[in-house]
């Protein structure tokens, strides 16, 4: 089992911690999982990617680096607001800080 779980389900990238580990191992596992998903065609890019689930700051940087190249905008779910907050955008349809369902 991996230290970090990533799956693309119903148009949302679902993330979660797996086996207990330190961030040095978790970022390696997250990067490897994203690479596998890209190679299999599971992550093909598009105008918007929504991410939902717990994440550490180092893992967030890995996801941002890998996904910002293939998606026009990336929104992360904020449970306090109940919406996705656009935190990366190259897509004029989305501005930083926009809230989306």
UniProtKB/TrEMBL annotation:
Recorded superkingdom: Bacteria
This protein's name: CRISPR-associated protein Csx3
Naturally occurring in which organism (per UniProt): Tolypothrix tenuis PCC 7101
């Amino acid at each position: 089992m991996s230290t970090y779980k990533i799956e693309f389900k119903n148009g949302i990238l679902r993330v979660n911690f797996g086996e207990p580990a330190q961030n040095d191992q978790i970022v390696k596992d997250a990067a490897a999982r994203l690479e596998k998903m890209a190679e299999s065609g599971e992550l093909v890019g598009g105008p918007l990617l929504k991410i939902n689930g717990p994440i550490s700051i180092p893992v967030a940087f890995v996801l941002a680096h890998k996904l910002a190249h293939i998606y026009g905008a990336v929104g992360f779910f904020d449970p306090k607001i109940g919406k996705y907050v656009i935190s990366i955008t190259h897509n004029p349809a989305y501005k930083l800080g926009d809230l989306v369902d």
